[in-house]
Structures are given as structure tokens and as C-alpha cells.
Amino acid sequence: MESEDPIEIPINGELDLHTFRPNEIGELVPDYLEACRESDIFTVRIIHGKGTGALRKGVHALLDQLPYVLSHRSAPGWNGGWGATMVDLKPI
User: How far apart are CA 52 and CA 39, in angstroms?
Assistant: First the structure.
């Protein structure tokens, strides 16, 4: 039997989605970004991996819909390249 306990994710400006499926990010990403804003973190790195690109496409589509996202782009090569996305957030 699988545990239904919530997973605690540290609010440190880096969200690693490797253990999540694309259908699980719809609430997770916005909630995490809001928590970052509340903690005065306005640049966030979302790690989605390279893989097939499905998770990256889902993350980017979601970011495009969030009004408090100023911009997003692939991380620099030394910081994950296209396997991670850098997000700039509007301050609260």
C-alpha cells in the first residue's frame, strides 16, 4: 500500500521534478513558485531533465499561464542546460 503522506519540498529556489510525472506538476509548480515568492526568492531553477522533453514542455506551458512569472529560459550549460529552466518571478 502506497503512502499518501505529502512530500515535503524545501523552499530554496530549486525544484527537482525527476520523481514527478507530467500530470503531477499542475499544482506543484505554482504552489512551489508562490512559496518561493513568499520567502523572497525571485529566481528559481526547475529541474525537469532532458529525457523526451514532455516534462519540460509541460513546465513551460504552465509557466506561460502564470501571471507572476516575468520570464523563463533554459538554464546555462553549467547549471543544467535545457534539462533545467530558470524562472524569474514578480515580487509580492
Answer: 32
pTM of the model: 0.90
Give tens-digit pLDDT for 12-66. 999 999 988 888 999 999 999 999 999 999 999 999 999 888 899 999 999 999 9
Written as nine digits, the cell of 71 is 520570464
Q: Which three cell numbers stand for residue 76?
A: 546555462
pLDDT tens digits for range 67-81: 999 999 999 999 999
User: Is 46 inside a domain boundary?
Assistant: yes
User: Structurally, how many domains does the chain consist of?
Assistant: 1
- Is 83 part of a structural domain of the chain? yes
Q: How many whole angstroms separate alpha carbon 19 and alpha carbon 68?
A: 25
Helical residues (DSSP H) of 2-82, grouped into ranges = 25-38, 54-65
